[in-house]
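Whiteboard transcription, Tuesday session. T.W. wrote the structure tokens on the left side:
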């Protein structure tokens, strides 16, 4: 029994080590100064006003004295132990504007798919930062197998508008209580507070299960990528900052192009994402020469295309994104060197690590040759695709005109018999005696000059006695009769 308990404890520790916890940052607490229009908490001689149609849940942690307070029709005040409100007795209150009205700010604009409103934390809720690891933008928002934490003794309101029918999560912790089963979450949603805390067309669903694939699981936020990028770039008017390199890269799941490097890995069933990430951090990123380097590594769904244009399907790959905090030639050289070291490690130990192949792309300030090569390859690919499409259209046009009987072949082209293509299984009937067959060809309607206008050549006499006609396999015999 002790061994079983020990094993369960080890498994729980491993699950905690691989789980990802993301904590919601904003709150609607009464004591948070930024929640009020004057940027401060109301004082004794103030009048507190909530808008009549405002829907909000407000947590109150300490007692307050107020002159007056107007409450919304649909809302709640969650009082901590000892918290409450008392009427102001009219005595002088230094530092408080007498009779001023303080309004509670609107929290409707706080969106679930805003990366700036989330932060990675440890299971205990403490902020967790790694100087070596970062996340692409889509993974800064809770993924399908993540644990979500709303800070204890806080109230909140979040817009869960989504392009997904259901937003899956492993667990949700709020008011100090972890809800990690579908049944517990369903029960909470039926309570009075859930409708005040979550609004929008999306539906949160707690599954209680994490990612069981050791090669990793895709985040699952691709359908809401446009919401994530719109929220992230709202302050800049929807525009990405100008990259410092000439030909930046666009990692999957990231809103803006980057100057750095990307490596896409094809993996085998025994690949372990967490072990490989730890290996890269310990053996490469921890080296002094790579100070300032950051890496994002995750499983993504890469779209496969036909001829580089037509979408066909998607396949899972491991994407590594490398960036540097600084700029300049030395920074570019560092990025290239780290990417090259990773590729060399794959060449030497890839099979043992469960990696079948890797593809590297580098975009830095001094990588002009790489950029030119990419541009030439793109030009060749585009030209090839356009050429093939034009050829197909040309052949299709010829076939269409021939079927309509509007296409006649040139007489100087060699006669070809294609019975299988044109279903000509019978030879045309021989012409009746004395009948003349043929047709006028405007391209060859000029007769050659004769040596003597009044004298017929033997060939002309033969033609007059025996009419000559030509069979054109691209022209219907029934249409040649005049």
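and on the right, the sequence the group agreed on:
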């Amino acid at each position: 029994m002790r061994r079983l308990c020990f094993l369960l404890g080890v498994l729980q520790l491993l699950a905690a080590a691989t789980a990802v916890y993301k904590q919601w940052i904003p709150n609607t607490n009464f004591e948070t100064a930024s929640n009020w229009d004057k940027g401060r908490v109301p004082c004794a001689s103030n009048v507190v006003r909530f808008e009549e149609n405002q829907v909000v849940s407000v947590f109150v942690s300490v007692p307050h004295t107020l002159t007056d307070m107007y409450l919304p029709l649909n809302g709640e005040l969650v009082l901590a132990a000892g918290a409450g409100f008392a009427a102001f007795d009219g005595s002088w209150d230094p530092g408080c504007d007498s009779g001023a009205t303080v309004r509670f700010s609107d929290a409707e604009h706080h969106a679930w798919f805003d990366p700036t409103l989330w932060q990675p934390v440890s299971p205990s809720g403490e902020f967790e930062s790694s100087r070596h690891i970062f996340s692409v933008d889509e993974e800064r928002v809770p993924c399908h197998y993540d644990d979500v934490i709303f800070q204890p003794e806080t109230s909140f309101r979040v817009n869960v508008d989504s392009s997904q029918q259901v937003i899956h999560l492993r667990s949700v912790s709020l008011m100090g209580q972890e809800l990690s089963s579908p049944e517990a979450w369903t029960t909470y949603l039926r309570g009075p507070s859930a409708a005040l805390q979550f609004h929008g067309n999306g539906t949160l669903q707690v599954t209680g299960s994490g990612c069981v694939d050791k090669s990793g699981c895709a985040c699952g936020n691709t359908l809401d990528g446009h919401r994530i990028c719109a929220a992230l770039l709202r302050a800049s008017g929807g525009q990405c900052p100008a990259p410092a390199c000439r030909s930046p890269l666009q990692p999957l799941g990231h809103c803006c192009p980057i100057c750095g490097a990307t490596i896409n890995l094809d993996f085998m069933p025994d690949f372990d994402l967490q072990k490989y990430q730890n290996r890269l951090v310990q053996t490469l990123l921890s080296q002094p020469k790579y100070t300032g380097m950051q890496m994002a590594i995750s499983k993504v769904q890469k779209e496969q295309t036909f001829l580089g244009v037509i979408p066909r399907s998607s396949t899972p790959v491991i994407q590594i994104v490398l960036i540097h905090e600084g700029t300049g030639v030395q920074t570019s050289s560092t990025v290239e060197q780290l990417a090259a070291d990773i590729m060399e490690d794959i060449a030497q130990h890839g099979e043992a690590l469960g990696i079948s192949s890797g593809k590297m792309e580098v975009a830095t300030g001094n990588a002009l040759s790489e950029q030119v090569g990419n541009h030439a390859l793109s030009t060749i690919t585009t030209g090839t695709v356009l050429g093939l499409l034009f050829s197909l259209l040309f052949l299709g046009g010829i076939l269409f005109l021939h079927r309509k009987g509007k296409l006649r072949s040139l007489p100087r082209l060699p006669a070809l018999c294609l019975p299988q293509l044109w279903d000509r299984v019978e030879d045309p009937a021989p012409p009746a005696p004395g009948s003349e067959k043929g047709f006028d060809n405007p391209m060859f309607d000029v007769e050659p000059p004769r040596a003597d206008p009044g004298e017929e050549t033997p060939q002309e006499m033969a033609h007059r006695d025996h009419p000559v006609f030509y069979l054109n396999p691209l022209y219907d015999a029934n249409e040649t009769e005049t």
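Someone added at the bottom: The chain is about 25% helix and 20% strand.
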